[in-house]
Amino acid sequence: MNKQLLIGALTLAASALQPIYANEISQNVRAGISQPNAPENYLELGLFHAIGDGPAQFGDGHYSDSGLLINGYYQWNDFFVESYSESGHGMVVGYNLFDTDQWSLDFTTTTSIGQFNYDNDGRNAGFNGTEIDEELTVGARLTGFIGDNVLQFSVNQDATGDHNGTTLTAALGRSWQWRNWNFHGLVGAEYATSKLNDYYVGVSPESALNPRFTEYKAGDSFNFSAEAGVTYPLTENVVLRMTARAAKIDDAITDSPYFNNKRSSALSMRTSISYVF
């Protein structure tokens, strides 16, 4: 099961003289951003604890995990590097292609694909000897700010030639401020091609020689996810975050013989505390 690290806070500054950029949507809603902003360069360190369950190759799918989180953002002219471990992606290197008062389009490269459902998209690392975080993808990310809502579309294409799979995602988020508490909600959907799914959970004729498995070819999939969370600044630089998530995983993935626990949903709760430099 792919376990992503929790992220903490993002400090933002906007100026009429600065170019307009849009962060990954999970960062926008957690930071309470409802319009394009020029993010400051920053580094963030913290600790997280997570519990959850979902489809799994072994056992009942329940897990508990703790660890270190490292996040940051660096921008130079129209180029940027960002690492938001709760976003469902690895490190993203990108270039802002254009922006308006409401929309921003980025060219992106990232080290993960098909992880839109954050804690578990069903394509677990280790199946077929694959490591999901090693995939290099290229794509584009379009972000729109409509009223108090943030809308984001993205496309990612395998750049390694391992499977030539593609994902398309759409997400809608919003935040609500109450005193020093920032509450947020986020819903999304992901479409993944059969080439990508079959690479991770398909069972080839050679692998089917193992009596434990039967041959299986995975098809296209639609996954859906939702999350709700809250951010609270304990001090000027120390931030507490709590997030609950749920994901619906397509049967094209969980029908794979690799799964012992074939449940089609994944749930998780995470808490983190981080220091923003």
Please give a structural write-up.
The structure is a single chain. The protein is built from three helices and 14 strands. The protein has 277 residues and is mainly beta. It has one domain: Porin (Beta Barrel), CATH 2.40.160. The chain has a twelve-stranded antiparallel barrel with strand order 3-4-5-6-7-8-9-10-11-12-13-14. It has a two-stranded antiparallel ribbon with strand order 1-2. The two termini are 31 Å apart.
Helices and strands in order, then pairings?
Elements: E1 12-13, H1 25-30, E2 38-39, E3 42-53, E4 63-76, E5 79-83, E6 92-99, E7 103-110, E8 137-146, E9 149-158, E10 166-178, E11 181-192, H2 194-201, E12 221-233, E13 238-248, H3 251-254, E14 265-276
Antiparallel strand pairs: 1-2, 3-4, 3-14, 4-5, 5-6, 6-7, 7-8, 8-9, 9-10, 10-11, 11-12, 12-13, 13-14
Strand content: over 45%
Can you tell me the CATH superfamily? monomeric porin ompg
Give the beta-strand count. 14
Order of helices and strands: EHEEEEEEEEEEHEEHE
Q: Considering DSSP H and I runs of 4 or more, what fraction of the residues is helical?
A: under 10%
Shape label: globular
Short descriptors:
single chain; 277 residues; mainly beta; Porin; two-stranded antiparallel sheet; 3 helices; globular; disordered N terminus
Summarize this structure briefly.
The chain has helices at 25-30, 194-201, 251-254; strands spanning 12-13, 38-39, 42-53, 63-76, 79-83, 92-99, 103-110, 137-146, 149-158, 166-178, 181-192, 221-233, 238-248, 265-276. It is mainly β and 277 residues long.
